[in-house]
Amino acid sequence: MKIGITCYPTYGGSGAVATELGIALADRGHEVHFITYRQPFRLPSFLPRIFFHEVDVGRYPLFEFPPYDLALAVRMHEVVRTHQLQLLHCHYAIPHAASAWVAREMLRETGEDVHLITTLHGTDITIVGQDPSFYPITKFSIEKSDRITAVSEYLREETCRAFGCDGPGIDVIYNFIDPDVYNRDKYPPLLKNEFGRSKHILMHVSNFRSVKRVRDVVRIYAEVNRELPSVLVMIGDGPDRPAAEEEARILGIENSVSFLGKLDQIAPLLAAADLFLLPSQSESFGLSALEALASGVPVVGTNAGGLPEVVRDGETGILCGVGDVPAMAAASLDILGDRKRWSEMSRLATIDARERFAREDVVSQYESLYRQSLPAQIT
């Protein structure tokens, strides 16, 4: 198959999954074309059967805000025609699926066509899409897609509740990990060597937006650190990073909290972690939590959104109420303070991540979806 993929190329779960999916599809012999404004951050400079097409948004004085969605539609149209793509797989309903619909309508004017798959990841539905300014176009984009997927049952139900969509049904296809990448045993203990083997390492990875509640991460760690010698490693960046840094200074723990910024490869660092903190307001799925579990790191987080579909409460981690810092700190101490319990949770986390979210199984689900969408003679 010849497949176009459009995603946000910047740091974040949706872009990571879309890029890894494209790489996996190319490994299986498909031709994959990424169409976006920047090379995806997890895409190496060259891989066989993978192509990158940059969307150039022209700068014209008339436009205070350059129309990326229209530039994207034109680029999609061009790439589909030039490379005879059979389908466009858009990650996020707006603007990507809306742009793909425009491109498809342009193609149909000349007797051509392309199939449209839309994967919903979360904020396109739970935040942006429900804004009155975007609600109609989000609903339209979903209903005009040939097939729709959501990354969790929670997100599927939330989409149906919010939009009451009359278009195709929504298939749940979970995010995935590559078990070979998230293998704790293959990496040297970099952070343990840096911070000392006697200290527990707590970790958080996100885009540092308000929904991630990064101040809570620091507060949970502060309570844990009072009881157990430990360090906190914060990976990622975003608008709430200064707030997290300020919280560490207020609590007097800034010397034991390390902000590492954006990193492309986090598996070597997760391999040294003892506990992963994810106290989010909501998670449509929780890819960072899955990556931690696959690395044998128990997760302490919130029982909100799709996270309970990823973390087995009481088995691979502990889930608490949103904002309940004391409960999450107590849960962290319970896990870290009992080496036998930690070892069992770590073992179960690794097994469960590989059984339910292995890359090959999930990519096969997408392949099957593509074939169901396309006419039999061109699959």
Notes on the structure:
By secondary structure, the chain is an alpha/beta fold. It folds into 2 domains: 2-176 and 358-378, Glycogen Phosphorylase B (Rossmann fold), CATH 3.40.50.2000; 184-356, Rossmann fold. It has 15 helices and 13 strands. It has helices at 13-27, 68-83, 93-108, 123-126, 135-143, 153-163, 190-195, 214-227, 241-250, 267-270, 287-294, 307-310, 325-336, 339-356, 359-373, and strands spanning 2-6, 31-36, 50-54, 87-91, 115-120, 147-150, 170-172, 200-206, 230-236, 257-261, 275-278, 299-302, 317-320. It has a 7-stranded parallel β-sheet, sandwiched between helices. It has a 6-stranded parallel β-sheet with strand order 10-9-8-11-12-13, with helices on both faces. Helix 11 (287-294) links the parallel strand 11 and strand 12 (299-302).
Q: Can you write the helix and strand succession as a string?
A: EHEEHEHEHHEHEHEHEHEHEHEHEHHH
- The CATH topology label of the largest domain is Rossmann fold
Structural class by secondary-structure content? alpha/beta
Report the radius of gyration as a whole number of Å: 21 Å
Largest sheet: number of strands, sense, barrel closure = 7 strands, parallel
Question: Helical percent range?
Answer: 40-55%
Strand content: 15-25%
In CATH terms, what is the architecture of the largest domain?
3-Layer(aba) Sandwich
By DSSP, the count of extended strands is 13
CATH class descriptor of the largest domain: Alpha Beta
Mean pLDDT: 91
Shape assignment: elongated
The number of helical runs is 15
Give the termini distance in whole angstroms.
6 Å
Which regions are unreliable across 5 or more consecutive residues at pLDDT < 50?
Answer: none
Instruction: Give the CATH H-level superfamily of the largest domain.
Output: Glycogen Phosphorylase B
Strand order of the largest sheet: 3-2-1-4-5-6-7
Number of domain units? 2
